[in-house]
C-alpha cells in the first residue's frame, strides 16, 4: 500500500480515560438551557415557558416519582423478579420534559427505557415491568394510548415511527394545531445505525410530521459518543434537510419547550425535526452491564452536579414556588407509588398462552388459529400431567 494522501494514517489508540475526556469537550457547544445546574432561570425568547405554579410543581413531582419507579425496576431485577432492567437514571429531565409536551393526539414510538415518558403521559407503567418479567406476550392495543411497545432492536423504532408519520400525512391529519404528530425516542448509539439514517431520508423527503428525540446519554452501551461522531449529533439533521435542535437534556423546562416547538411544527405540516438532548446515563446500560469497566468516578461525579432533579428543586426553592412540606409530600407519594408497583409486579399472573396469537392479524388465518388450538391443548396436557402427579 502506498503512502500518499489517501492512505490511512496510523493513529494512537485512545484509552477509556482519554476518550471520556474528549467526550466531555465534544459536548461543550451551546444548547438551549432555561435552568442552570445551580438552579438559576435563564431567559430565551425562542423557547419561553410560562406555566402555572401548580404545573411547575407538577413537573418536580413527575421527576421524583418517575426516578423512584425506575429505581424499583433495578431493585426488582436484583431480587430475581425481573429478567433485566434498563434504567433511565439521570435522564428524567429529557423524558419528563418531552413527555409533558405531547398532546393527546400525538403517537409515541419508544426504545426500551422510556418509563419516564410513559409516566409523564399518564399511562400505566406496569407494561414495562411485565415485559421484563417475561409475562407480557406483546398483546397490547397500542392505538388506544398511542404509546407503542418498547423496542429492543436498536433504531428499528425510528423506521416504524417514520412509516406511521407518513401515514398520518396521507390521512390528512396534519395542518392544524389539533393535528397528530409522531415522536420517536432513541439514544446516541442509534444514530450510527442504518435504520436511523434511512428514517431521516424518508421523513425528510415526505415531510413526515415526526420528531426524532435523541437522548445523547454519552454512551452506546460501552462506547463513548466520540467514537460515533466528531460533531454534535444534532448536526446530522442538516444533511437530510431536517430541522435540528440541541438542548440541555438535564433541564426539564428546556426539554419541554424545545419538544413543544418541534411537535407544533410537525402538526402544522412543517416537516420533521431532530432533537439532541445532551444528558447522561448515571446507571449502567442495563442491569447486566458493568459501567466501571469503561468510565471512571470523576466523570460520574461531574455529571451528578448537573442532576435534573437537584437543579429543578433549587430553582423551585429560589423562585419561592415550593417549601419543605411540598418536597416531603412528593417523597411520600413516590414511596407509595413504589410500594404499589412492587406489589403489582410480584403478583403479575402468568399469561394465557393463547394471548400470543392476539393482535397479530385483524382476522387470523386458519393456520394461526390451528396453532392457537394446539398450544392451548398442549398447555392443558401439561397441567393434567401435573395434577396426576
TrEMBL record:
Chain positions covered by the region annotation Disordered: 1-48
Taxon lineage: Bacteria, Bacillati, Actinomycetota, Actinomycetes, Glycomycetales
Gene3D superfamilies (UniProt xref): 3.40.50.970
Domain of life from the UniProt record: Bacteria
Keywords, in A-Z order: Oxidoreductase, Pyruvate, Thiamine pyrophosphate
Keyword Oxidoreductase annotated: yes
UniProt entry tagged with the keyword Cell membrane: no
InterPro entries hit by this protein: Alpha-ketoacid_DH_E1_comp, DH_E1, PdhA/BkdA, THDP-binding
Protein name: Pyruvate dehydrogenase (Acetyl-transferring) E1 component subunit alpha
Extent of Polar residues compositional bias: 18-27
Domain named Dehydrogenase E1 component: residues: 64-341
One Pfam match: E1_dh
Gene that produces this protein: pdhA
Cofactor(s) the protein requires to work: thiamine diphosphate
Record organism: Salininema proteolyticum
Amino acid at each position: 500500500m502506498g503512502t500518499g494522501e489517501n492512505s490511512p494514517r496510523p493513529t494512537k489508540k485512545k484509552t477509556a480515560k482519554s476518550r471520556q475526556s474528549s467526550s466531555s469537550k465534544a459536548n461543550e457547544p451551546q444548547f438551549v438551557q432555561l435552568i442552570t445546574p445551580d438552579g438559576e432561570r435563564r431567559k430565551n425568547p425562542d423557547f419561553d415557558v410560562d406555566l402555572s405554579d401548580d404545573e411547575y410543581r407538577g413537573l418536580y413531582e413527575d421527576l421524583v416519582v418517575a426516578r423512584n419507579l425506575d429505581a424499583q425496576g433495578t431493585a426488582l431485577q436484583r431480587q430475581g423478579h425481573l429478567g433485566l432492567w434498563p434504567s433511565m437514571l439521570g435522564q428524567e429531565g429529557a423524558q419528563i420534559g418531552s413527555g409533558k409536551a405531547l398532546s393527546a393526539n400525538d403517537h409515541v414510538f419508544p426504545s426500551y427505557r422510556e418509563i419516564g415518558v410513559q409516566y409523564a403521559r399518564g399511562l400505566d407503567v406496569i407494561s414495562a415491568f411485565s415485559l421484563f418479567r417475561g409475562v407480557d406476550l406483546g398483546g397490547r392495543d397500542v392505538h388506544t394510548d398511542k404509546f407503542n411497545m418498547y423496542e429492543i432492536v436498536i433504531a428499528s423504532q425510528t423506521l416504524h415511527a417514520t412509516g406511521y408519520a407518513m401515514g398520518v400525512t396521507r390521512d390528512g391529519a396534519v395542518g392544524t394545531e389539533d393535528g397528530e404528530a409522531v415522536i420517536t425516542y432513541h439514544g446516541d448509539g442509534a444514530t450510527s445505525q442504518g435504520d436511523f439514517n434511512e428514517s431521516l431520508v424518508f421523513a425528510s423527503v415526505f415531510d413526515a410530521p415526526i420528531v426524532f428525540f435523541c437522548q445523547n446519554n454519552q454512551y452506546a452501551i460501552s462506547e463513548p459518543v466520540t467514537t460515533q461522531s466528531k460533531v454534535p449529533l444534532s448536526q446530522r439533521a442538516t444533511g437530510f434537510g431536517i430541522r435540528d435542535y440541541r438542548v440541555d437534556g438535564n433541564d426539564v423546562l428546556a426539554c419541554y419547550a424545545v419538544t413543544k416547538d418541534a411537535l407544533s411544527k410537525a402538526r402544522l405540516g412543517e416537516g420533521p425535526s431532530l432533537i439532541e438532548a445532551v444528558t447522561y446515563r448515571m446507571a449502567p446500560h442495563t442491569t447486566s452491564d458493568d459501567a466501571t469497566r469503561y468510565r471512571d468516578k470523576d466523570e460520574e461525579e461531574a455529571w451528578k452536579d448537573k442532576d435534573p432533579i437537584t437543579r429543578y428543586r433549587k430553582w423551585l426553592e429560589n423562585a419561592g414556588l415550593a417549601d419543605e412540606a411540598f418536597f416531603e409530600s412528593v417523597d411520600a407519594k413516590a414511596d407509595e407509588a413504589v410500594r404499589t408497583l412492587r406489589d403489582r409486579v410480584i403478583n403479575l399472573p402468568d399469561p394465557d398462552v393463547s394471548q400470543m396469537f392476539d393482535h397479530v392479524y385483524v382476522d387470523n388465518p386458519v393456520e394461526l388459529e390451528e396453532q392457537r388450538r394446539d398450544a392451548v391443548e398442549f398447555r392443558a396436557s401439561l397441567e393434567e400431567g401435573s395434577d396426576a402427579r
